[in-house]
Amino acid sequence: MRVSVIIPTTNGPAQLLRLAPLHNAPRSVMRTQDDYRPLPVSAAYQAFSTPGGPMDMAFGLKASAFDLRLSARVDSGRSWELPVALAHWLQAQGHELCAEAPDLVVWATGALDLDMGVIAQEYHLPSKLSHSRDLLNAAAAEGQQVVVFLPGSNAPPAGLSGTIALHKVTSFAQAIGALHPCLARVSPQAAAPEASASPTHHGRWHGRASAALLGVAGLALTAVLAFFGPWDWPGWNGRVQAPAASTGPAAPAAANDTAETDTEARPEPSADADRADEQDLAANAKPVMPALLLLRPDAETSCINVHFGGAEAQQERPAATEDGFEHASLERLCAVGLALPEEAAAALHVTLPETLLPHVMPSDRIAEMTLAPGEERVFALTAQLPDRLDLRWLITDEAGQIHALEHSLRSHD
Amino acid sequence: MTGHDDLHLQAFHALQAHRAAMQSAVAEAGSATAPIPASRMVAYARRADSTADLALERALRERPGLRLLYARVLSGIAVAASPRAAAASDARVTQRRIGEHRLEVVPEADGLSWLVLRLADGAGAVTMLELRGPDGTGRRIALGAPIDGVIQLPLDEAFADLAGVAQLIGNPGTEIYLL
């Protein structure tokens, strides 16, 4: 799919024109098409895109440096980080970044922390939106999907076309969760990721797992709504671009959700209500869920020995409950992970608990993954763990339904 | 004697040499080129930007004596200089050592080459690079800020400032100055 990524600034929008990997030049460079010299933010971009840096940890980068070219200057600040991370992720999934005639326009602003969470700060949203409004409305008028990602804000933006999807995001993972249905909507074939888009970081216990984040064709709009939970702004809460009629099981749910918010975004009635009902029924059937894996060292050894391959770990599988897993102990816990039974019908997309990521070793730290039937993936934990970890795994099934698996890990059971 | 005094002494010697060259040029009957005032040449070498004085550039290409003089002035003000590749030969070079710094031209798969200047630890501010080929052809380019100790520029010929830069760096006889 052709995707245009827009980085808004208080001076106007900067469109991403080119993102090319550099295999010999040592530094990542952000520049405009009018100047060969790097922009002042290039040093920060280098740190952001360096091997082992935040983006590499989140989804793996194919090169150690990049040439990123913009249509206009970005002189300061860090709000370019979310759109740039999205651009890298989109390209890693095999999508074409372009400025002309895109299928999808992504407008995003937000500085990211080391865990790819959006930092709460002043983003000058009214100014950025007012400079971008005409561009976004024109794209929507031309029939392009337009998605706007906004960090926390107290007021809904005004003057945007009703077909523009608005998402309030607090993390990079949320943003890509919201992009899934948009990417699947126009052309699931085009949205299929390249085989080489797998993350580069695999834990010691990891099987070779594809990061086929978009492989779930037909991922529904309800996924986005479930992802974000309740909205703060009654005027546009959950206002999302209407999917094409009968493109997936989410259409009825989306209609329900948008009915009380924005009439412009209301999807067209399904042309085949019976089919939609069947899809709803199918969606309600809960697929086989992954099992929770906990790895601990034998009594006479330690996690360090396990991590360095000097000892085998003992595997525990806490019993499943209605909403997740039974609580378990944090004592001598080396790693945590999931295993999808062989009998599962299809791969699942898993978003790791945000509360877990800070305690995962950097080499294993990824925000999400795809888990194939029969596959196990575990994540080595750091030595310093808190007294309690409340974890919420988000599992997206083949039908686009999102299931939350919750459980706690505590120092003293 | 301070470095400042050294600089003035060099400039003074350059001025004297140039004055002699000018007098010689004026004396030449039928000379097609007008003499270049030394003050203009020194000011050109010391300019803070990369704008080119076309008359001076032409003079530098046509008059080896003036070129020598210009090189002496540039050497006096440069952060680091390399008069020619250490192992000069007819072969093209892709790396040059300029004082403690290292300059490379690295190709990428898309056909675009990059200028990579690795600055030595503790290097002072380097803002411009001047290249002067054996035939007097010159380019001065503004470098921008280093990124983690490296200045990296795309040698994209679409930018007029960068036209011919890769060829000049590849020529072992090119003088390179970091300013």
Explained architecture:
The complex is a heterodimer of chains A (413) and B (179). Chain A has 413 residues and is an alpha/beta fold. Chain A is 23% helix and 24% strand. Chain A has helices spanning 42-49, 54-59, 81-92, 125-141, 172-186, 188-191, 221-228, 251-259, 273-284, 303-307, and strands at residues 2-9, 12-22, 29-32, 65-70, 96-97, 104-108, 145-150, 165-168, 291-297, 313-316, 320-321, 324-325, 328-329, 335-339, 348-351, 368-371, 376-380, 388-396, 402-410. In chain A, strands 1, 2, 3, 4, 5, 6, 7 and 8 form an eight-stranded mixed beta sheet that branches. A five-stranded mixed beta sheet of chain A has the order 13-19-18-15-16. With 179 residues, chain B is an alpha+beta fold. Helix content of chain B is 35%, strand content 22%. Chain B has five helices and eight strands. Chain B has helices at residues 3-27, 38-45, 54-62, 64-77, 165-170; strands spanning 80-82, 95-98, 101-107, 113-118, 128-132, 138-142, 150-154, 175-178. Chain B has a four-stranded antiparallel beta sheet with strand order 1-8-5-6. In chain B, a hairpin with a 5-residue loop joins β5 (128-132) and β6 (138-142). The chains are: A alpha/beta (413), B alpha+beta (179).
